[in-house]
Amino acid sequence: MTRQLWAPWRLEYIQSADQQEGCVFCLAQAGDDESSLVVHRGEHAFVLLNKFPYASGHLMVAPYRHTGDFADLSAEEAIEIHHLAGQGMGALAQVYAPQGYNAGWNLGRIAGAGVVDHVHQHVVPRWVGDTNFMPVLADVKVLPEHLLETREKLARAWPVA
Ligand SMILES: [Zn+2]
Questions:
Q1: Whole-Å CA distances, 36 to 6, 29, 73, 81, 122
Q2: How far is CA 156 from the centre of its chain?
Q3: How many Å lie between the centroid of ligand 1 and the Cα of residue 126?
Q4: Closest CA to 147 of 30, 85, 63, 58
Q5: How many angstroms separate the alpha carbon of residue 127 from the centre of ligand 1?
Q6: How far is the CA of 149 from the centre of ligand 1 (A)?
Q7: What band does 160 get if pLDDT is binned at 50, 70 and 90?
Q8: DSSP codes joined into one string, 18-87
Q9: 60 strand-pairing partners
Q10: What is the pLDDT of residues 65-116, one digit of tens each?
Q11: Closest Cα partner for 89 from 52, 126, 114, 63?
């Protein structure tokens, strides 16, 4: 697959990130779960929904600590982010039964990162033919309700330990 998997959310997200005061990840972890779309909180890292998802259930996993340097992540942070990404797939499997995932890091603006100074991993569920309904999900008018419902479902389906 050679097309740019990470491109569709980029423009909206970059625009949004630039307009926002402060770091979206630091703001999200300080807020309440529902309005911040936080799905799960770990010890060193947390999981939230992307407000501009590429697919339904598009998760992001970020350390609590504000750092834009991937190499600066501690072993505890790196391990927990990896673990939470796996748990997120477990929750997604229960709720949306995706047929695959894209899981990865966009580091630096040139690599597609909308937020460059707080590293985060994307977990994007994939289904056969999913490119066909992406534009529908990307409609900002239908998103808020959809996102709240998705957050609730995934938080409830989060695997234990
Ligand atoms: Zn931050």
A1: 22, 7, 23, 18, 17
A2: 17
A3: 28
A4: 58
A5: 31
A6: 25
A7: confident
A8: HHSSS-HHHHHHHS-HHHHTEEEE-SSEEEEE-SS-SSTT-EEEEESS----GGG--HHHHHHHHHHHHH
A9: 48, 122
A10: 999 999 999 999 999 999 999 999 999 999 999 999 999 999 998 888 888 9
A11: 126
Q: Provide the annotated active-site residues.
A: 120
Q: 């799905």: which residue's tokens?
A: 39
Cα–Cα distance measured from residue 64 to residue 48, given in angstroms and rounded to the nearest whole number: 12
pLDDT tens-digit readout, 115-139: 899 999 999 998 887 664 444 444 4
Radius of gyration, alpha carbons of the chain: 15
Cα 26 to averaged position of ligand 1 atoms, centre (Å): 4
Return d(Cα 76, Cα 99) in angstroms, integer: 30
Residue 1 pLDDT exceeds 50: no
Q: Could you identify the residue written with the tokens 């033919």?
A: 129
* pTM: predicted TM-score of the whole model, two decimal places: 0.81
